[in-house]
Amino acid sequence: MTTVEINFDGLIGPTHNYAGLSLGNVASAANAGEVSAPRQAALQGLAKMKRLMDLGIPQGVLPPQERPHVPVLRALGFDGSDSAVCAAAWAADPALFRNAFAASAMWTANAATVSPKPDTADGRIHLTVANLASMAHRSLEAPETEQWLRLAFSDEAHFCVHPPLRFGVHFGDEGAANHMRLAPAHGAPGVEVFVYGEDRGGRFPARQRRRASEAVARLHGLDPKRTLFVAQSDAAIQAGAFHNDVVAVANEHVLFAHEHAFEDKGAFYAALEEALPGVVIIEVPANEVGLEDAIRTYLFNSQLISLPPEGREPGSMALVMPQECRENQRVWSYVEKLLAADNPIREAIVIDVRESMRNGGGPACLRLRVQADAAAFAAIDRRFLLDEALWERLCRVVERHWPERITASDIGNPALWDEVRAARRALLTEMRLA
């Protein structure tokens, strides 16, 4: 077995709702207060996982986190039983409780930053848990994320899991959503690109700090000559590209990016071409796909994947993209042009993740990429690796236990709190994690 890329998707949790908690996330704000469909959302996510499995691409899964997040409510002075704590918090501060109820850990592109063996000084796979310090609801995720990652990647001969960075927003770290890796192949030494934002007084904040990216690179033992720190375009941030993966994605030797993704694209492209001769840079012109269309459809939040060679030209890649791309005439016209051109991207695989999209998370938001050789792959805890049988069992759990819908007022309903806790327990039991 050569080095492969495994996509670890977050299973969308039973508290999936539209509370509009994420400043700078245009879709999240636009759909605030709308009725969500947690069961449909989770089944959409599972269907995406199955689509990749059917292509022969290894697929992992991480469970949703415990919500409502009672420990943070207790730490803020609410006491009594779990239900009493939730009731008191909902009555006293509904906005706080909505943060404690969020299902945002489903977007595992923000779970951690991952560097594979060929890039690290000690020849192990390094994962640094993201602190997600810039948003209250997301800052709650790091402890449980670290718990699951330490369990899934417990073999220290192959893996090193680092805790989240300290010092809050001063070292704000949003994980792999602002990190790209380019290499001739998954198993070859690569160039790791850390994309950060610079606050310039705009209406939306930059979330990734350069100093955080530099710290992660040091912790992972990366070669400074093959590590690039690149400023995200402020125009993209202010348009609603709150993470780099909303305007750029990379896979092996291909970078697929919007014309306005980076603040100084000329310097970045030159540095990348020097560090990785043979890199293919596909830049989408703004006059064909504007930032507004890119963000509305999440064209760049597609999963750019390497396709198995059977029946295909070697080196072929595909974009696993949301159906919103096909529904937008300008974007789909560009996609058709892209597929007809001479480049490694040969296929567009259109999927339905509309429930996640309405909260500002496309296909790429839902997965954390881990490149592993045969020995490391064998060392991953099998409970987190998806196969046909586990996939079917997870679908049955979701169909039986996930709420069909959640309204804004439902969030304060004690019966719903009991329902979502029971749903998660059923899932963990099915995964043998309880």
What this model shows, in words?
- The chain is built from 17 helices and 15 strands.
- By secondary structure, it is of the alpha/beta class.
- It has one domain (4-67, 102-430): Succinylarginine dihydrolase (L-arginine/glycine Amidinotransferase, Chain A).
- The strands form five sheets. Strands 2-1-15 form a three-stranded mixed β-sheet.
- Helix 4 (82-92) crosses helix 5.
- The chain is globular and about 60 Å long.
Largest sheet at a glance?
3 strands, mixed
Choose one word for the global shape. Answer: globular
The tally of beta strands, per DSSP, is: 15
Rounded to an integer, what's the Rg over CA atoms? 20 Å
DSSP helix fraction: 25-40%
| β-strand amount | 15-25%
Just name the CATH architecture: 5-stranded Propeller
Alpha carbon gap, first and last residue: 31 Å
- Given helix and strand content, the structural type is alpha/beta
Number of domains: 1
CATH topology: L-arginine/glycine Amidinotransferase, Chain A
